Request: fold
Amino acid sequence: MTQLAAQTALVTGANRGRGRDVNQLLARGATKVYAGARNPETIDINDPRVVPLQLDVTDPDSVARAAEVAGDVSVVVNNAGISLAARVLDDDTAKLRRELEVNLFGPLAVTSAFPDQLAARSGVVVNVASILAWIALGGSYSVSKAALGSATDSMRLELGPWGVQVVGFYMGYVDTDMASGVEAPKSAPAHVVRQVLDGIQAGALEVTADDMTRAVRDGLAQPVDERYAPFLPEAAEAHDQEHHTTTGEPS
Reply:
């Protein structure tokens, strides 16, 4: 089990959504939280244990400066992310590339800036992915989060031998600015944060935040055509017709 007491955490994207709820880390005994944001003036948490930190995860110089300031980090939460949800076959790949820069290369850059600190303290890395990494309904966003999921497993293989716990965190819609235009059930940010902190302390390597995400995770064992049948009506109809022909069942 991993204890959060006496740990020093870095949370990227700490000025919005889930990232703002760093108080739960403090409530579990963390002694300091570096709240990373491109504009640290937007960090409005009035607690001396919370240190606003200028951090643009897509800027190597910014990441290097943050690593110099936050040399005592033992927990890295790669929370910063964007969703542009472009079509993956668009001629203009600018949105896809931007999502990959933030959602994939950002966590890789931040984590690779702290390997010695994490290893020395048997620390924790949390990569915030998405249910859309497992079901590709988010276009380019799904691509970036699926890539992060794979990168999380690779990180675990590289850092695990040093005693570092690498956690993949997956969730459905959360009631944040990113999902403001979505008309669907949403989890409260505080609930989502509590789920991942519980997972860290239980020693989990993968955490799912809600029932919908757990159902999609369980469905990964299904054949691809069955998993995507609800979203491809014509394919589903063809599958049903083939089934009826083979079994002789009435349509």
User: Anything to note?
Assistant: The chain has two domains: 8-209, 222-251. The two ends are 54 Å apart (CA to CA). Residues 85 and 138 are 5 Å apart (CA to CA). Confidence is low (pLDDT under 50) at residues 246-251.
